[in-house]
């Protein structure tokens, strides 16, 4: 019997070279999961993720699926798999999925969060989970920038250089739609901030470049009114710096109907 199983996965990306399996055999989230799933199912397993997070990036709600003919109980893909995986990768849920479900192509949108700290001295325990930008930060300065980013735009200026064949005629190029962008303090913790991005898709390092640019605006190094010109330029050099990977979290993948509902 053919089955499609989808997993809800959280991981600490600090010790991995990102999600995607690497040819040189370096540690990745996909590789570790496929090793344990293949052992559990007693057959080779290829895991398809909803996206590809970079080295050092974390996830709270990655979704991935695989096909198998094993008859083992569904619980084995959560409790059993967690017993085999390293503690920096956890399965939060496992469920049967339609055979035509695809973690990436069935997704309607994603939400990413970027965490950073602007105080003078960062606690060592936080260094792997938030970027450090010592100095003043005025979130109110971001208002026009956040509004300008919402909507459908060509985000070439916020894409890592050389990460896409710009001569290709297929696909939608660098056009993406952001439905929500916000910057809020983290609870009542002084100088701790989160920028959230929700959209129908993201280019390579797009969230980190957007975050770096917005942090520069909040710290007075750029003006919020520059965002439309950055978008129009379609040139990576027009935007701000690429924020460090450590502050980035993949929070959620959206599907219709919603999956992994309690």
Short description:
This protein has 262 residues and is α+β, with helices and mostly antiparallel strands. The chain has helices at 29-41, 79-84, 143-149, 206-218, 227-233; strands spanning 3-11, 48-49, 58-68, 89-97, 109-117, 131-132, 151-154, 175-185, 192-199, 248-254.
Could you describe the 3D structure shown?
This protein is of the alpha+beta class. 18% of the residues lie in helices and 27% in strands. It is built from 5 helices and 10 strands. The chain has helices at residues 29-41, 79-84, 143-149, 206-218, 227-233; strands at residues 3-11, 48-49, 58-68, 89-97, 109-117, 131-132, 151-154, 175-185, 192-199, 248-254. Strands 1, 2, 3, 4, 5, 6, 7, 8, 9 and 10 form a 10-stranded mixed β-sheet that branches. A hairpin with a 6-residue loop joins strand 8 and strand 9 (192-199). The radius of gyration is 19 Å and the shape is globular.
